[in-house]
Amino acid sequence: MFERKMMAGWGDMDFNSHMANTAYLNKAGDIRMLFLAENGFPMAEFKRLNIGPVVMKDDISYSKEVLLLDQITVTLAVAGLSQDGSRWQLRSDIYRSDGKLAARINSSGGWLDLTARKLVTPPPALLAAWQSLYQTDDFQVLPSSVAKP
């Protein structure tokens, strides 16, 4: 399981003195980009390839509060992937320091060609990176996002 320790910082808080819903989405985005960078795809490589990850849907379920300066653990797993890698569903769980699940984020997306502005298949090494992620128990094979000629 790919995971990193993070902190709930001042900018992550809302009026109710707990982590804001947008902060959970940002942590899920951070863990995705950390994974990609550590697996050969830092931002410079995406720029060179002229593609980028695009999220088309996020679903968040909350379980427990996260408060200011709490240490959290954010995980990343693959919950769905098309055979060509053009479509994916990733899951990030956010755990409090006491080990309790604070939130689960399911994000569905694909790879965007930044010039054509359409979904494309990733290069083989990028697909291999996604395939190397831990698969959730409910993993499913997704249909391709790329239209066949």
TrEMBL record:
InterPro entries: HotDog_dom_sf. Pfam families: 4HBT_2 (PF13279). This is Thioesterase.
